[in-house]
């Protein structure tokens, strides 16, 4: 965020809570709270497992109790620096998959699978089926607190971690997703990361 000279400055904080918005510890400089106007946009950086993610947000309000904090909007324009475009987290969620052939969904051959990891831009699943890169799919991911989200998608990566086992890790990219669904997924990911971080401190 800019200082009085208009130059960008960096301040440390931490995520305290995630609900409809995000609560972060009030940034300080030499023990003095950073002054920011309501509605002002700023950039954040989150480091998770030695990987950095950048995002955009804005200040909604400030609070002093129970701890000095800022209430900010949920992050958007989340980017993994110089790598993936979205934050990714390992988690197992049920998925239903149907192939799309010649533009038509093959509804009589639904396949059940489980995610290996998820992001706002796609999922990776573990499955005993091999698809070619470029295969179009209609997938339904059942997200806790969000519900099922059905999206047209495409296979972009296939790995076989153990050559002697017919189990594949399939990377799937969302082709069509509205910003509301993407925002809900990213919110779920940030909330799950916060829960995992808190468990690690117990």
TrEMBL record:
Specify the protein name: C-di-GMP-binding flagellar brake protein YcgR, contains PilZNR and PilZ domains
Q: Where is the Type III secretion system flagellar brake protein YcgR PilZN domain?
A: 9-75
Molecular functions per Gene Ontology: cyclic-di-GMP binding
Signal peptide (from-to): none
Q: Where is the PilZ domain positioned along the sequence?
A: 82-190
Superkingdom field:
Bacteria
User: What keywords appear on the UniProt entry?
Assistant: Cell projection, Cilium, Flagellum
Provenance organism: Sporomusa malonica
Is this entry keyworded Oxidoreductase?
no
Tell me which InterPro entries the record gives: PilZ_domain, T3SS_YcgR_PilZN
